[in-house]
Structure prediction request, 184 residues.
Amino acid sequence: MIIGLTGGMVCGKRTIAEILMKRGFIALTFSADVLDYELRKRGIPITRKAQQDLGNEFREKEGGGALSKRLILKMEDGKNYVLDGIRNPGEVLELRKQKDFVLIAIDSPQKQRFERIVSRGMERDAKTWEDFLIADTRDFDDGSAFGLQIKKCMEMADYTVVNDGSLEEFIKKFEGIFKKISIK
Prediction:
């Protein structure tokens, strides 16, 4: 089974990936397993904007599913994967060609996500509300067919989890969806 995760910054994708990893899923991310590797190779500092620009470059040169194709090459038959950070519909379409692919959108209010980003304190994260909005707006739709379009990816999801309460509530919502997926 391949479970893809889409949603805005700090919406809870990593939390879901960690839950699935405890169940034997192998986690791959579009940022760390594809983009960060290439940025290091090119000697470019890893920033959100650099990741966004490189992802757009790959999709413009190689087609909408360019990043998914790279992750698929890292997968082995018979294993379960969770793919974190789907940001373009072309990536979803490429993954839909794989057996047992399910896309889960994670939705969370902007204010809550900003509070989470500030509290996690990663160096590359936005420090101000204005900087957060710039990055978030670009993530959801940068206006390019091969660019960032989280909003469209979320619309393509098989399931949506809303993360607007406590961690326990969020996990309970996900568990309900995972149960449905596992029954199929």
